[in-house]
């Protein structure tokens, strides 16, 4: 039962990053403008896209998933701090908490590994 729960958890945790990375390609200019409005260079967007897709797939497939989980935990915390810090805006406050929750899930992945159903179990 734990092995199935770990697999489902990895699928759910990875889905948002894989789809977000792919969606950033079709909405490239809007995402670039959004990043720049928060003080980040828009030139980082290709790196962000590659990171989200590649590391998201690592979690999904269970390849170096402990380290992928640690990287995504850091990414979630950085994203919360950089983009979702306006607590006067309920949507931003909710996104901040969502990112904290995802970071917690990724830290659990780092601590416990990918489980039995992984291409490279930890």
The number of strands is 0
Radius of gyration: 15 Å
What is the global morphology? Answer: globular
Count of DSSP H/I helices: 5
N→C terminal distance: 17 Å
Question: How are the SSEs placed, and which strands pair?
Answer:
Layout (H helix, E strand, L loop, with lengths): L1 H25 L1 H10 L7 H17 L3 H19 L6 H23 L10
Give an overview of the whole structure:
The protein has 5 helices and no strands. It is mostly helical and 122 residues long. The radius of gyration is 15 Å and the shape is globular.
Gist of the model:
By secondary structure, the protein is mainly alpha-helical. It is 77% helix and 0% strand. The protein contains five helices and no strands.
Labels describing this entry:
mainly alpha, 77% helix, 0% strand
């Amino acid at each position: 039962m734990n092995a199935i729960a770990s697999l489902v958890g990895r699928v759910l945790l990875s889905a948002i990053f894989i789809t977000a990375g792919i969606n950033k390609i079709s909405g490239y200019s809007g995402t670039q403008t959004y990043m720049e409005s928060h003080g980040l260079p828009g030139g980082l967007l290709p790196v962000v896209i590659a990171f989200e897709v590649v590391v998201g797939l690592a979690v999904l497939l269970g390849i170096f998933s402990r380290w992928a989980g640690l990287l995504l935990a850091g990414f979630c915390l950085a994203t919360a701090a950089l983009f979702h810090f306006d607590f006067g805006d309920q949507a931003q406050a909710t996104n901040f908490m969502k990112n904290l929750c995802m970071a917690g899930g990724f830290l659990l992945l780092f601590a416990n590994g990918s489980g039995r159903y992984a291409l490279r179990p930890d």
